Amino acid sequence: MIQTTYLTLNTELAEKKGAFHTAKEIAGQPELWSQVYEQVDQMKEKIQDFVDPIFENGNARIILTGAGSSAFIGESAQGIVQQKTGVLTQAIATTDLVTHPELFFMAGTPTVLVSFARSGNSPESVEAVRLADKFCDQIYHLVITCNAEGQLAAYANECEGNCLAIVLPEAANDNSLAMTGSFTSMLLTVLMVAGIKELDKLKPAFDNAVATANHILHNQLEDFEALAERDFKRVIFLGSGSMLGVSRECHLKLQELTDGQVVCKHDSFLGFRHGPRAVANEDSLVVYLFAKDAHVAKYENDLALSIGQDKRDIKTVCFGGENVEEYNSILNIPVEGAGEDAVFNVLPATMVGQLLGFYKCLQLGLQPDNPSVSGAISRVVQGVIIYKK
Known about the structure:
Helix content is 47%, strand content 15%. With 389 residues, the chain is of the alpha/beta class.
C-alpha cells in the first residue's frame, strides 16, 4: 500500500498524531491558490459589474471585517486594497463592529462591507452584517467565505442588488481548528478583487508566490522540524505594511497551535523599537517577514542588524531577507521574483507561522488538528451571546 505524505508525515502517522487535516491543509495551499485564482478570474466580469459602480461614486468606503484570523486578513490586505482601488479602506474586526457600531459605521457614506468567514456562522460575523444594514444608508456586502452552507453565504445569495458572495472551493474550508488554507485563500481573493482590472499583470507575481511556497514545502520542512526542537519560550514576528497583518496571523497561529505554551508577539520593524523590544531576550526567536520594497528594506535592515549584534545571541528567522549572516539567522527562506511586484508574497509568508506552529505543536506532544487541551478554543467560536442594538 502506497502511503501519501503530507508535510513530513505519512497518512498513518499523521492520523495517529492527530495531525492529518492540518498537515494536508498546509501542504495543499499552492494547489488551492491556483484553484482560487482560476475561480476569481472566471468571475471577473461579475465582480467588476458589482464593484465598479460603487467605486466610481467617489465617496465610497471599504470596511474589511472578520473575527480572529479572518480579521487579520483585512489587516494584511487593507493597504493593498486601498492602493489598487483608490477607495478609503479600513480593517475593522467584527468583534469591534458588534460592540461599537456607532463608532465605525457612517450613515451618509456609501460603504462596502467585505466579510471574511471560513464557516460564515460566527455570531459576530452575522451580527456585523445586520448592524451594517441598520447603520448605513447605502451598504453593499461582499462576502468571501469557504462554506456554501454558512449563514453569510445564504444572506448574500438571498439579498437583492447590493450583495455578492464569493464561495471558495471546498478545500478552503479547513477541517482543522487552525485556519491555514482558508486564511490564505480568502486573502488571495480580496487582493484579486482589488486588482480585478489588472489580473493579467498580476499573474507573474502570483506565480512567484506559488514558487516560493513550493520551495518551502519541497526543500525546507526539515529546517522547520529542527527549528521546532529548539527551546524557545517566546517568538516575535515582525513585518511592515501588508506583512504586519501577516505577522499578527503568524503570532496567533503559533500561539494557538501550541495551546499557549509558546507566547508570541507581533509588531512592525519600526514600532518594535519603541518599547516592545523589551520582550526580546535569550529565550526568544525573532521572525522577520521582510518587504520587497527597497525603501522599506532600509528600515528593516537597520533593526535586524541591531538585533543581530545583541550580546544575548538572539536567534532569528528570515523570510526574504538579505545580509542574513549579520542577522544571526538560523533559517533563511528565499523569495522568488527579486525586484518584482510582491503583492502576493503575503501568502507564502503566512506559511512561516503555520509550519513553525505545526512542528512545535508536535514537539510539545499536542495534536495539531485540535491542540486546545482545555477546549477553551474551538473551530467556530462558542458561547458568544449577541445583544441587539
